[in-house]
Design a protein that fits this description.
It contains 9 helices and 10 strands. The protein is of the alpha/beta class. The N terminus is likely disordered.
Length: about 325
């Protein structure tokens, strides 16, 4: 080997050693193949379904299993809109839980989406989309990926999303510890859940879309229902009181623009109904939605009230 070739060989050898040492000193990077913070999707019965996932750093630093909250948008909305409207991501960061915002179904990509809650709403109802299967698959995926406490899984939603929350509490009573439908209701033909599920319901007395006294659908999206009248907010609460084997009569507290009905229930079970007298079809304490255009009341912050209720209950 001549001097020139020898110098070239030594140069390449030196460069390779330096590069190997540099790579060895780099921090190890784990490729995250599963769902991560941000937008994700999964296949359910051959259909691609999407959701937003928020995983606060504080949640992953907990020494115990992590609670999970699902937030369902209203009819005509989407997961991103529900995140902005409710402020649940900020609450998750403060309290250390995971929050997911699933998307319903619609003809447009991530716009004007609905849930199949039985008698409402829109395309999801018309096409009989199996949203229960979607949410069940979503829970399976998240439980497989993160240290979620299976006894502390919760769902809340507004309007059509609240109706879907009712349906999930009934049909997946073995998976949810508590539900929190907001400006929503039941239709009166629902079956009782197989297991008790704690429930907190928040209704606006001024709501014309989902009338607090019950009756046919109203508001700008009445034609998105199948026309089945909704039961009153009080009958909605009585349904869950019966399901949880609570006493028939509730204790009622009135304070200004707020009335709260609390039922006496067996241990680790609760049913509460909040009637916000100055709220219409909006998320109290939240931001005004682009589809659900009523101005939210500031009498209570629904997100704070709901998380306080959720944090007190786990599934037996």
């Amino acid at each position: 080997m001549n001097a020139c070739s020898k110098n070239s060989y030594l140069s390449r050898l030196y460069t390779g050693l330096v590069l190997s040492l540099f790579i060895a000193l780099l921090p190890t990077t784990v490729v995250h193949a599963g769902p991560g913070d941000g937008r994700n999707s999964l296949q359910v019965d051959g259909t691609k379904r999407s959701y937003l996932l928020r995983i606060p750093e504080r949640a992953l630093k907990r020494n115990s299993k992590i609670p999970l909250v699902l937030v369902l948008h209203g009819g005509g909305g989407n997961g991103a809109g529900a995140e902005k409207m409710t402020g649940f991501t900020a609450k998750a960061k403060a309290e250390g839980f995971i929050v997911a915002y699933p998307d319903g179904s619609g003809r447009l990509k991530r716009r004007v989406l609905t849930w199949n809650a039985g008698h409402c709403c829109g395309l999801a109802m018309d096409k009989q989309v199996d949203d229960v299967a979607f949410i069940s698959a979503l829970l399976d995926e998240l439980l497989a990926e993160y240290p979620i406490d299976p006894s502390r899984i919760y769902v809340t939603g507004m309007s059509n999303g609240g109706m879907m929350s009712h349906r999930l509490g009934i049909e997946l009573s073995d998976r949810f510890a508590a539900i929190a439908p907001v400006v929503s209701g039941l239709f009166g033909d629902e079956s009782a859940p197989a297991q008790p599920v704690s429930a907190i319901m928040i209704n606006g007395v001024l709501d014309e879309s989902v009338p607090v006294k019950g009756g046919p659908p109203g508001g700008r999206f009445a034609d998105e229902w199948d026309g089945t009248p909704i039961v009153s907010a009080l009958d909605q609460a009585r349904f869950w009181a019966d399901a949880n084997q609570c006493k028939k009569r509730a204790n009622r507290d009135n304070s200004g623009e707020l009335a709260v009905l609390r039922y006496q229930c067996p241990e680790n079970s609760a049913v509460e109904l909040y009637l916000v007298k100055d709220n219409a079809h909006a998320w109290p304490g939240g931001k005004k939605g682009s589809i659900h255009g009523d101005r939210p009341s500031t009498t209570i912050n629904a997100t704070d009230v709901i998380w306080s209720f959720f944090s007190d209950h786990s599934r037996n």
